[in-house]
Amino acid sequence: MHPAPSVILFTVLSGLGFGLLVFLGIGEPEVTGWTAFWFFLIAYALAVGGLVASTFHLGHPERALKAFSQWRSSWLSREAWAAVAALVVMGLHAAAAVFLGVTFTPLGWLGAALSLATVLATAMIYTQIRAVPRWNQVLTPLHLVSASLAGGALLAGQITPASVLLLVAGLIQVGHWKVGDARFAEVGQSLASATGLGAPGRIRAFAPPHTGTNYLLREMVHRVGRKHARKLRALALTFGYALPLGLILVPGAGHLLGGLAVLSHVAGMLASRWLFFAEAEHVVGLYYGARG
Amino acid sequence: MTCLPARTDRKLGLVIDLDTCVGCQACVVACKGWNTENYGAPLSDQDPYGPDPSGTFLNRVHTYEITPENAPAQIVHFPKSCLHCDDAPCVTVCPTGASYKRAEDGIVLVNESDCIGCGLCAWACPYGAREMDATARVMKKCTLCVDRIYNENLAEEDREPACVRTCPTGARHFGDLADPDSAVSRLVADRAGLDLMPDLGTKPVNKYLPPRPRDRWEDASVLAPFLEPVADSPQGFLGWLDRALERL
Ligand code: SF4
Ligand code: SF4
Ligand code: SF4
């Protein structure tokens, strides 16, 4: 799939923002006053910034409100509802913490649950698509949720949860790649099944249906060099998970190392998310003679 | 509403005969011609006369080569447009309700004034039947020529999809696939019509008729029998020559 910068930024930034909101909601750290103000500011800047970035890939962003209408069937619509609900509930929670200096635990937990639901709904948008076998697997929601929680814990400065979550998220990331690499073959679609021309014998694409390129090829038949991908995976693992883990485990690690850990994590996640799209093979490629 | 109707009274769709299609692209042109000036936004082209042309089409014809065992290779032209699936994944993913499947005849349509151009429906379609128009920035797809098939301003014989009407070989058939006695349903039954990627659970309404088995090497040419060697060991003068040369 085409790795559009707006969608990569959206999933990485709002994943981090909602991850941080989860931790602020459950009171890890329990903050009030100015400290709370800065924490919530960062969380909202990331979450809302990501959502704004996502509207850049819409053809008609001015109609975005219509996207709230189909929550009965559409994960994208559910995501919109969950995001707004999470931002409103956490906004009330934040106002109480910043201006009144009090925390309403149930409200915080509700906000945390809604924030988590938002990330899960985003993940389901990709997971549900059977035409992209690499995404259509159990580890996709686990990967996106665990990465968001790890980033949130890191931003919240929660050393122990962050260490555990970085380790777990890193393992799930590797699992997602490994399972993902085999998914296309496992789903078993081929040019023969795509055309129904399997029985008469071997089949190959002989001439394309159009001379130039088109929307389908631009959007869904992206090709990444295998060597390229291997290097990026190594970078994503190192900067996204291993380096931040090492940095926060340094005894007495202060804000400087913590800040570096966050930057490294964001860089790693950008690489990981680029691969998430670029490596995802859509079955429509078969009609164009791509992927056996 | 992007929930799918529990059932549709009719299942209007196309039956495409891969045995007859000669890949002339007439349906591609007729489809673009009709649909660029009727239902919804025009089908735009980008850089049409320049070095990098590209544009929106609702129907495209691929070409494949199949090599049966013990028979010469065969070229198969393969027209592809929306299959108006019964379990259309493109409809349920749509957040705005712009994509919908009609309960009365099963046609899958996009209400362009509701479409936010998110492109999710094109991702969900396994067949590449949806294209986002680069100028109008809304999703375009085959409408089954909904503005022809019920159009009383057109002559009776023109009330069928533009691609069907134009096909010079009659390779595209239009009808109700829910009615087992319709001409299209009988074609599907007689010719073992099949679904594309049935395992993906989309339950396409459109069906494809596979090419009939064609040439075999034995009857590749009517002259073939005359080209067979007349005798394995030559007789008479040729036989003498053969033996003489052998001895040299
Ligand atoms: S062919 Fe594609 S666009 Fe048409 S109904 Fe099926 S899934 Fe939807
Ligand atoms: S591109 Fe338009 S029709 Fe397709 S899912 Fe998005 S809003 Fe719905
Ligand atoms: S039915 Fe109409 S819109 Fe669909 S492919 Fe044929 S001409 Fe195009």
Share of helical residues of chain B: 10-25%
Principal-axes shape call of chain B: elongated
Largest sheet of chain A: none
Q: In oligomeric terms, what are we looking at?
A: heterodimer
Radius of gyration of chain A: 21 Å
Mean pLDDT of chain A: 95
Q: Could you say which structural class the secondary elements and strand pairing of chain A correspond to?
A: mainly alpha
Structure summary, number of beta strands of chain B: 11
Q: Please write the string of helix (H) and strand (E) elements of chain B.
A: EHEEEEHEEHEEHHEHEHH
What's the SSE blueprint?
The complex is a heterodimer of chains A (292) and B (248).
Chain A: H1 5-25, H2 33-55, H3 75-100, H4 105-127, H5 139-156, H6 159-187, H7 191-195, E1 202-207, H8 215-220, H9 226-249, H10 255-278
Helix pairs in contact in A: 1-2, 1-4, 1-5, 1-10, 2-3, 3-4, 4-5, 5-6, 5-10, 6-9, 9-10
Chain B: E1 12-17, H1 26-36, E2 45-46, E3 54-55, E4 59-67, E5 74-81, H2 89-92, E6 99-101, E7 108-110, H3 120-124, E8 130-132, E9 139-141, H4 146-149, H5 162-166, E10 172-176, H6 183-191, E11 207-209, H7 224-227, H8 236-247
Parallel strand pairs in B: 1-11
Antiparallel strand pairs in B: 1-10, 2-3, 4-5, 6-7, 8-9
The complex binds iron/sulfur cluster (3 copies).
The site of one iron/sulfur cluster has 14 residues of chain B, from α1 and α5.
Give a quick rundown of the structure:
Chain A is mostly helical. Chain A has helices at residues 5-25, 33-55, 75-100, 105-127, 139-156, 159-187, 191-195, 215-220, 226-249, 255-278; one strand at 202-207. Chain B is elongated and about 90 Å long.
